[in-house]
Specification:
β9 and β10 form a beta hairpin. By secondary structure, the chain is an alpha/beta fold. The protein has a domain at about 5-85 and about 155-235: P-loop containing nucleotide triphosphate hydrolases (Rossmann fold). Strands 6-7-8-3-9-10 form a six-stranded mixed β-sheet, with helices on both faces. A four-stranded antiparallel β-sheet has the order 2-1-4-5, covered by helices on one side. The chain contains nine helices and ten strands. It has helices at about 45-50, 70-80, 95-105, 110-120, 140-150, 170-185, 195-200, 220-225, 230-235; strands at about 5-15, 15-25, 30-35, 60-65, 65, 80, 155-160, 185-190, 205-210, 210-220. Helix content is about 35%, strand content about 25%. α3 packs across α4 and α3 (about 95-105) packs parallel to α5 (about 140-150). The structure holds adenosine-5'-triphosphate (ATP). Adenosine-5'-triphosphate (ATP) binds near residues 40, 42 and 45. Adenosine-5'-triphosphate binds next to β2 and α1.
């Protein structure tokens, strides 16, 4: 079986800055894959190139064997994506937005209707189904965007910081939904800054910094004997010593 996601030699430059620098990554089918890295490491840029949202300067991305840039429509059929910071059609209500995502996927209207309501209910948005998304909180917006990514039951889910701004109860619900999805044969790739969460949820992890993969593979192998956070700090560099600075703040 081909990998759920195979990235080869991805490069993206913004002016003089190389955000992603010849990055390779293989995500096996059925994995729950965490992507971690410091701010500005290139996680969002990588996931955007992997899902057809941002054209790479070089390299290739395949989803379950389908080339994202040679056959974008084919790849997008296999993918559910929760992008970071991409504007939603926020003049729709939550229910309209999820329905719209399903109808865009050419799903039958009655299936879209049933799934949209079920998703909003599961994510605690049933009472806000008729509210315009522009009036949602950050966490509610994240959850409705997740519903949009799930409605067509994709083979591979790519989620950029799905737990950011989400309350603990909703976080637990999302974890349960994703766990069930992976147990059912789906593949999840998510980026997160929360090491505990990645350690608890993920079977595999990649540590990215400076647009390159510093370590990747099964969680236990990458983590070694310590915690993921310790390994992360080892790989990425120590914490900054701020003693003797910011005196004016004390
Ligand atoms: N549209 C853009 N134009 C210019 N520079 C960009 C753009 N998008 C990203 N960058 C730069 O590329 C680098 C990688 O950014 P990216 O958003 O991929 O990092 P990240 O790992 O997702 O960071 P964070 O954890 O803070 O979300 C950063 O230096 C960023 O400033």
């Amino acid at each position: 079986m081909s990998d759920a996601l195979a990235l080869r030699g991805l490069v993206k430059r913004f002016g003089a800055r190389t955000a992603v620098d010849h990055l390779d990554l293989d995500v096996p089918a059925g994995a729950f894959y965490g992507v971690v890295g410091p701010n500005g490491a290139g996680k969002t840029t990588t996931l955007s190139m992997a899902t057809g949202l941002l054209r790479p300067d070089a390299g290739r991305a395949r989803v379950a064997g389908t080339d994202v840039w040679a056959d974008p429509a084919g790849a997008k059929r296999l993918l559910g994506v929760l992008p970071d910071g991409v504007r939603l059609f926020d003049r729709l209500t939550g229910l309209e937005l999820v329905r719209y995502s399903g109808l865009l996927r050419a799903m039958p209207r009655e299936v879209v209707e049933a799934r949209s309501r079920e998703l909003l209910d599961a994510l605690g948005l049933a009472d806000a189904a008729g509210t315009l998304v522009v009036d949602y909180s950050a966490g509610m917006t994240k959850k409705v965007a997740l519903a949009c990514a799930l409605v067509h039951a994709p083979r591979v889910l790519v989620l950029d910081e799905p737990f950011e701004a989400v309350d603990p109860v909703s976080g637990a619900t999302i974890r349960a939904i994703l766990d069930g999805y992976v147990r059912g044969g789906g593949t999840v790739v998510l980026s997160s800054h929360v090491m505990d969460l990645v350690e608890r949820l993920c079977s595999h992890v990649a540590v990215i910094a400076g647009g390159r993969v510093l370590a990747a593979g099964e969680l236990a192998a990458v983590r070694g004997t310590g915690s993921l956070e310790e390994r992360f700090v080892d790989l990425v560099g120590g914490t900054r010593d701020v003693s003797g600075t910011l005196d004016w703040l004390r």
